[in-house]
Structures are given as C-alpha cells and as structure tokens.
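Allow me, if you will, to draw on your knowledge of protein folds for a short while. I have a record of one protein: its chain in single-letter code and its fold written as discrete structure tokens. Kindly check, if you would, that the fold set down in the tokens agrees with what the sequence suggests. Thank you for your consideration; the sequence and its tokens are set out here:
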Amino acid sequence: MKPIESTDSELLQSMLGGDREAFAQLYRRRQSNVYRFALQMSGARELAEDVTQEVFMVVMRKAGNYDERLGSVNAFLLGIARNLVLRRLKQDRPLLPIEDALETARAEGQAEELFRRETIESVQKAVLSLPEHYREVVVLCELQEMSYAEAASVLGCAIGTVRSRLHRARTMLIERLRPATSESLLNERLKSARCFA
C-alpha cells in the first residue's frame, strides 16, 4: 500500500509546527519550479540559484503569511520569487546574460541540437526583451503552464489583466521572432523553450 503523500499546504502547516522534514519535502518538491521561474525571468543561472535559496529562506521565516484562500503554495512561492527577481533585476541592470549553449552544440557537431538551441536562444532573448509585466505572464502561463487564475494569484492582479497582458505579450513575441510570424510557430517555440531551465 502506497503511503499518502502530504499536500503542499499540509507540509507548510507542519513546517509551522517545527517539522524540518516537512520543509525538506517541500523544498525537494518545489525548488525546481522556483528555479525555472527565476531563470526564465532573468536569463541568469546564478541569479536563479540565489533567488531559489532566498525564496525558501523567506518561507522559513514567513510561512505563516500563506493564505490558502488566495492561491496554491506553488503560487505563494512563485510570488515570493517574482518579488526577489524583480528586485534583483532592478539592482543589477543591465543583466541578461544568455548561456553560450551554441558553442557547445557546434563543438558537438550536431546540427539538430544546434537548431534546437538556436530556437531556444531566440525565444529566451525574445522573452527576456519583453517589459517585466509582460515577461511575467509569459513565464507563468506559457513556460510554467500555470492557469490564468494561478498567475493572477502570483501577480496580485485580476484574471482579465493576465489575459490581456498575455495577449499583448504574444503579439510582441511574434513581432520579435520574425520571420516566424505565425502564432502556431510561436506556440511550438514556446513549448520547446519550456525545457531551457
């Protein structure tokens, strides 16, 4: 018989009661989501690693601030990550280094891998070039595959705002990714970029 796995909310409540193992489980379960979000928002691995650690430090101190009525624990964590990333981006401007994945692909001599990485790099650059409020909705809804409601919870705005920002962001991305102007091609590129973390 398989043991019943605790929900994120239950783990957070156990943490509040001093259960260190609950914190470790929550960290193992959610740290990759937080890291991917921070990386996709910043384009900088070091910043993403720092933010991921900071998010869980904040959770240790402020887990009591979590309100289940306002959204999931994942949305709570990404909301903390969002604030930390935006603060760091404002401090560290200009900061948008893109890892030199193309050199690795060329050295390996794999044309298909090179094309895939070029596509990912072009999407990364296009997403990173968006203004922050548009970048956030693309990262949350397209790359993190959150629902509009979850994204609205993370961003502290209405669902309609998420929808309109995402629509505008997609339009901007299509423009930036020319000559690939079709929306179906944009969808394919966004799907392939989900794994860039």
User: Anything to note?
Assistant: The radius of gyration is 18 Å.
